[in-house]
Amino acid sequence: MSQAEAVGPAGAGRPRNPLWTFGILRSELTTTLRRWRTLALLGVLAAVPVLIGIAVRIETSDGSPAGSGGGGPAFLSQVTNNGLFLVFAVLSVTLPVFLPMAVGVVAGDSIAGEAGAGTLRYLLVAPAGRTRLLLAKYASTLVFCLVATVVVAASALAVGALLFPVGEVTTISGTQIGFGEGLLRAGLIAVAVAASLIGFAALGLFISTLTGSGIAAMATTVGVLITVQILDSIPQLSGMHPYLFPHYWLSFADLLRDPVYWDDVVKNLGLQGLYAAVFGSAAWARFTAKDITA
Fold first, then answer.
1. In a domain, 88, yes or no
2. Would the pLDDT of 196 be above 80?
3. Would you call 63 exposed, middle or buried from its count of C-beta atoms within 10 A (0-12, 13-18, 19+)?
4. Parent domain of 40
5. I need a labelling partner for 89 at 20 to 30 A (CA). Which of 113, 115, 275, 285 fits?
6. What separation in angstroms does the CA of 249 have from each of 3, 46, 77, 96, 268?
């Protein structure tokens, strides 16, 4: 098989051995998670709970409650009573900004970075096809979403347990649940936060298919994130807010109610699925028809 056949738009004539799919996915996961850039992003994310935890500890060292100066992330006032709340507070800080920016870097670079480095053509020589390569790229980005969220949550849990007491958790509804159930709620919230990023990851993947520059794709993806966040904060545009992908991101707080309030959580997951379907399909249409010559 010639390279021209391997990189042609149709991608016809390739063997359909499913082992290639798992091999490419494993390779993409290994490459993504071992990059110094990825490790640096995870390091920064892990440092955020440390900085917030230390700041709260210093602020409350004189006996004043956390956030007494006004403002601050949700759940911050509860951290001094229960270190587990640092998980919820840090996720409410990182989800609107830090986590999606990290995902935007990985998603934006997924295709454009390979094209810019001249390796995309050689990846397509393997008999996996463009569709399977694109799916592997998206799957590896979703794994990064989960890994990044778990890193933030695990770091916050460790710092919270080290600096503050832990015990029974007072829910938003005012009832108390055991520490074990609180940990389960924290795990469920981490999964919900990771799932909140699947639509944005698909958007970044689509942008990555539009250019051969990884830097341009990453910058555009992050720029779209900032623009949509601004639109979601303008009251005069409230009519469009329910259709913007970050609108229900903080609905994970409803998982800390007793009983759990699922309405906004389900709306968020449905909206993310819609974005994933639309921009995933757009990425596939663009990538399978793209003329790759380098």
1. yes
2. yes
3. exposed
4. 16-287
5. 275
6. 43, 20, 21, 7, 7
